[in-house]
């Protein structure tokens, strides 16, 4: 289930068991379904390396002018650790080839697991001169796999455009399903009649 | 001294000076048990006790205030909010009417005797033109003076009543002296509309009083405002109008005014009075000091016969009685209605409010109360209707508009809610209700962080509005920040222990955190406060079900279903419980009944599908799942339903509880 609009034909063969993805280009606006919400506000973010002044905080500051710049050997890693097991559906990155050129990531691998010791790759994407928000869906083909349940997510930048060494990423957001505002229900309520009576405010 | 004590109490009302304020107030009231301010003094003391959390002492003080002055509506209001008010019929009863009447008639007789006494204190600086002054005025005048001087307990209301009881042959009079009224101005549009009293006779009766020598006398107006006495010196007027300074009551008059340049103006009240009303011209003299007053009194006394006075007093008394009865009747209805709605006996409250005469019913305050009652009954459509009417009739009243915004939130009326919010902010940027409405707007669009910010503004503006705290708590809860939400709900409860929304909020948080006993306890508290809300009953049932007390849970659900037929939630929950108890046919029955009320609910079909699968009616199961998917549930549900559909044809597969 690709959630990205523009794609070129998939050419990359699968590597290491992860399904192939098309080359993503990025969209100018962030478009997320209403039934999803940002999940990583209370998560612990860390990076494998960074240049002073362009640290991990720039990934979460809602400012597209600031960016994280890595400063070490590839692959560059962004680790997101949640306080409890969460359901995740969508990963969105903001990258800009026009501004960053050789710093723009080209191959990204997304891994999930309980911790550093048992991360498993769930997705690999290739980017092709992306400008804007790149939406990477974390769902599988099966409807049962709409969400991944995980404690930790790791975004690994395997290579950059023009074979650059370090990478720039300007913003990362992670989305999951909204909480049902009536606790302990098997299903969400959809109709007006139910929703009106569903809570006391 | 009294004024200063009250001022001290008022200014010392902040958290720092409360003890000081209390001490000051207490000394003030101890020393002067009988002063008019006794009632308002007790009221103030009661407020202080309430703000510091000492509810029984507060209730005591309010009761005292009411005993001293039965017309102090604000004290009755506070008692209702504390939940300990006695029946309005008792409070504003016939006995009270008689008592009030007696006090005022006794006052008038006192005045009569005072006339005699003060004869001696005449000074001679009263001009002879005073001869035209009718004894009526003098009485009022005297009433004022007496009020000032002797501190007679009810002379102010007396003066008020005296004037209101003025006989209708007031062709040469007009409305009385500015009285110092005890009635608190917080009340709903009260009524001292003793229309008989102020009948205008024709303009032909326009008096042609000689101009009084303005140089000698100055006017004095005294009226009680909330903090204390304020003296305002007006101008002497002849052939001019006047109006009662009582802020809470407006005597309606339809007299004509004989134009005159010296129109007396009152402090704040005069302006609107003047523009609206026309007064019959009269001579009124107001003296600046006792001596002058007494002198005028004595002069008049000399001029008019006792007989005359007695006559007037008598007719005045009967008017007085009528006036008092009317007022008390109104207060009785309003009080009863308010007391019932504060104790959440909403249906009865509505019946009481409906007994009001039409012009009284169609006022902002009453309509807001009616709307609020419907809101507590979870009848949002009616509530919407009444609040809208209230808002249209009095667009600048912001009390109760926060509840209105919640009603619109529940009805999902985004546009109207945002319009209301903008309107309220433009009316008064510094009112907490406006920001509550704005916050509700954002909450409706699921932007919980902005909503939280707005609710925090509301809290900042007035931390004594419990609802603002509760709304903050709801937003924290939506953001899954349970610690903070618990904190905010507790703040709300600190302000008002009977705020059932906060109890409910706490219950929901504990339910999510799976602390089911706590959840049940809090829902039960909420339910005990507001026993007519079907949603509360439903949640209590859910908590009981989580505690595995299924019998109690089902009972609760049945109660909820009975309380409000239109509420689909208890039926749905009942079906869930029955499913848990594996009573599949009953569960299906319940859902079939639910279909009639809410035919387009995805979760209902999904649940039906699940039950059919359990009883192995597979084709129906798939059918139901199909409908559920068609109704566009959110992605999470789509996943569950789709996987359930796949599993339907594989009954051998081990199903985990997770999916279905």
TrEMBL record, chain A:
- Please note every region of biased composition (Low complexity): 10-22
Q: Provide GO CC annotations from the record.
A: anaphase-promoting complex
Mind listing the GO biological process terms from this record? anaphase-promoting complex-dependent catabolic process; protein K11-linked ubiquitination
Domain of life assignment: Eukaryota
The alphabetical list of record keywords is: Cell cycle, Cell division, Mitosis, Ubl conjugation pathway
Span list, region Disordered? 1-32
DOC domain location, by residue? 15-201
InterPro entries assigned:
APC10/Doc1 (IPR016901), APC_su10/DOC_dom (IPR004939)
For this UniProt entry, which segments traverse the membrane? Answer: none
Concerning its family, UniProt says: Belongs to the APC10 family.
What does it do?
Component of the anaphase promoting complex/cyclosome (APC/C), a cell cycle-regulated E3 ubiquitin-protein ligase complex that controls progression through mitosis and the G1 phase of the cell cycle.
Name of the protein in its database record? Anaphase-promoting complex subunit 10
> Organism source for this protein?
Zizania palustris (Northern wild rice)
Automatic annotation (TrEMBL), chain B:
InterPro entries hit by this protein: TPR_rpt
Which compartment or compartments is the protein found in?
A: Nucleus
Gene Ontology BP annotations: anaphase-promoting complex-dependent catabolic process; cell division; metaphase/anaphase transition of mitotic cell cycle; protein ubiquitination
What sections of the sequence does the record tag as coiled-coil? Answer: none
Q: Does the keyword Nucleus apply?
A: yes
- Residue ranges of the TPR repeats are 39-72, 432-465, 466-499, 500-533, 602-635
Region Disordered, residue ranges: 1-35
Any one GO CC term of the record: anaphase-promoting complex
Q: Where is the composition biased (Basic and acidic residues)?
A: 19-35
Keywords, comma-separated and alphabetical: Nucleus, Repeat, TPR repeat
- Please give the PANTHER family that the UniProt record associates with this protein: CELL DIVISION CYCLE 16,23,27, CELL DIVISION CYCLE PROTEIN 27 HOMOLOG
Q: Which family does it belong to?
A: Belongs to the APC3/CDC27 family.
- What is the recorded name of this protein? Cell division cycle protein 27 homolog B
């Amino acid at each position: 289930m690709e959630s990205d609009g523009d794609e070129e034909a998939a050419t990359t063969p699968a590597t290491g068991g992860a399904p192939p993805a098309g080359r993503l280009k990025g969209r100018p606006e962030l478009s997320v379904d209403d039934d999803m919400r940002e999940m990583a506000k209370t998560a612990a973010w860390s990076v494998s390396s960074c240049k002073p002044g362009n640290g991990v905080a720039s990934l979460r500051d809602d400012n597209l002018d600031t960016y994280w710049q890595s400063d070490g050997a590839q692959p560059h890693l962004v680790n997101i650790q949640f306080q409890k097991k969460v359901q995740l559906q969508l990963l969105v990155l903001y990258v800009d080839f026009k501004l960053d050129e050789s710093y723009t990531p080209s191959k990204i691998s997304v891994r999930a697991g309980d911790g550093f010791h048992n991360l498993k790759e769930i997705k690999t994407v290739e980017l092709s001169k992306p400008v804007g928000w790149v939406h990477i869906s974390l769902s599988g083909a099966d409807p049962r796999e709409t969400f991944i349940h995980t404690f930790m997510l790791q975004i690994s930048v395997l290579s950059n455009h023009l074979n650059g060494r370090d990478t720039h990423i300007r913003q990362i957001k992670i989305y999951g399903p909204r909480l049902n505002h009536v606790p302990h229900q098997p299903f969400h309520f959809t109709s007006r009649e139910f929703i009106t009576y569903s809570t006391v405010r | 001294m009294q004024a200063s004590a009250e001022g001290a109490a008022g200014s010392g009302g902040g958290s720092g000076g409360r003890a000081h304020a209390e001490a000051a107030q207490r000394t003030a009231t101890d020393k002067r048990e009988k002063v008019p301010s006794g009632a308002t003094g007790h009221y103030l003391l009661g407020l202080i006790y309430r703000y510091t959390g000492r509810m029984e002492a507060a209730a005591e003080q309010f009761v005292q205030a009411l005993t001293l002055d039965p017309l102090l509506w604000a004290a009755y209001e506070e008692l209702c909010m504390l939940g300990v008010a006695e029946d309005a019929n008792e409070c504003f009863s016939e006995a009270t009417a008689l008592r009030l009447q007696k006090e005022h008639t006794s006052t008038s007789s006192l005045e009569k005797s005072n006339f005699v006494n003060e004869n001696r204190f005449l000074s001679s600086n009263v001009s002879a033109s005073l001869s035209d002054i009718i004894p009526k005025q003098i009485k009022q005048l005297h009433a004022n003076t007496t009020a000032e001087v002797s501190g007679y307990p009810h002379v102010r209301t007396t003066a008020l009543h005296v004037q209101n009881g003025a006989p209708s042959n007031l062709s040469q009079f007009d409305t009385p002296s500015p009285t110092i009224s005890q009635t608190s101005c917080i009340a709903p549009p009260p009524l001292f509309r003793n229309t008989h009293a102020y009948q205008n006779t024709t303009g032909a009766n326009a008096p042609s009083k000689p101009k009084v020598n303005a140089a000698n006398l100055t006017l004095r107006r005294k009226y009680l405002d909330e903090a204390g006495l304020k003296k305002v010196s007006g101008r002497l007027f002849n052939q001019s109008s006047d109006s009662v300074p009582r802020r809470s009551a407006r005597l309606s008059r339809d007299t004509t005014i004989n134009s005159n340049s010296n129109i007396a103006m009152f402090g704040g009240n005069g302006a609107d009075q003047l523009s609206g009303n026309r007064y019959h011209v009269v001579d009124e003299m107001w003296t600046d000091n006792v001596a002058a007053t007494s002198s005028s009194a004595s002069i008049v006394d000399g001029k008019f016969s006792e007989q005359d006075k007695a006559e007037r007093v008598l007719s005045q008394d009967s008017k007085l009685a009528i006036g008092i009865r009317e007022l008390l009747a109104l207060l009785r209805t309003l009080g009863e209605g308010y007391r019932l709605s504060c104790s959440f006996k909403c249906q009865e409250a509505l019946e009481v409010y409906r007994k009001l005469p039409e012009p009284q019913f169609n006022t902002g305050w009453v309509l807001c109360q009616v709307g609020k009652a419907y809101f507590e009954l979870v009848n949002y459509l009616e509530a919407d209707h009444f609040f809208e009417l209230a808002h249209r009739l009095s667009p600048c009243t912001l009390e109760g508009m926060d509840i209105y915004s919640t009603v619109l939130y529940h009805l999902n009326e985004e546009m109207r809610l945002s319009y209301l919010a903008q309107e309220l902010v433009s009316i008064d940027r510094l009112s907490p209700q406006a920001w509550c409405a704005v916050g509700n707007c954002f909450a409706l669009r699921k932007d919980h962080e902005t909503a939280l910010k707005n609710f925090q503004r509301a809290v900042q503006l007035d931390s004594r509005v419990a609802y603002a705290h509760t709304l903050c708590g709801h937003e924290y809860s939506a953001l899954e920040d349970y610690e903070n939400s618990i904190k905010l709900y507790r703040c709300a409860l600190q302000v008002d222990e009977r705020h059932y929304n906060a109890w409910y909020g706490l219950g929901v948080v504990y339910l999510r955190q799976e602390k089911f006993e706590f959840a049940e306890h809090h829902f039960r508290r909420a339910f005990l406060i507001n026993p007519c809300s079907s949603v509360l009953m439903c949640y209590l049932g859910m908590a009981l079900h989580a505690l595995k007390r299924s019998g109690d849970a089902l009972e609760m659900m049945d109660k909820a279903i009975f309380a409000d037929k239109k509420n689909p939630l208890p039926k749905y929950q009942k079906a869930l419980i029955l499913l848990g108890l594996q009573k599949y046919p009953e569960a299906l029955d319940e859902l079939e009944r639910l279909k009639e009320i809410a035919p387009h609910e995805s979760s209902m079909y999904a649940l039906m599908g699940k039950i059919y699968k359990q009883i192995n009616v597979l084709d129906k199961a798939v059918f139901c799942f199909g409908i559920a998917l068609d109704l566009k549930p959110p992605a999470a549900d789509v996943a569950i339903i789709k996987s359930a559909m796949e599993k339907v044809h594989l009954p051998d597969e081990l199903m985990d509880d997770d999916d279905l």
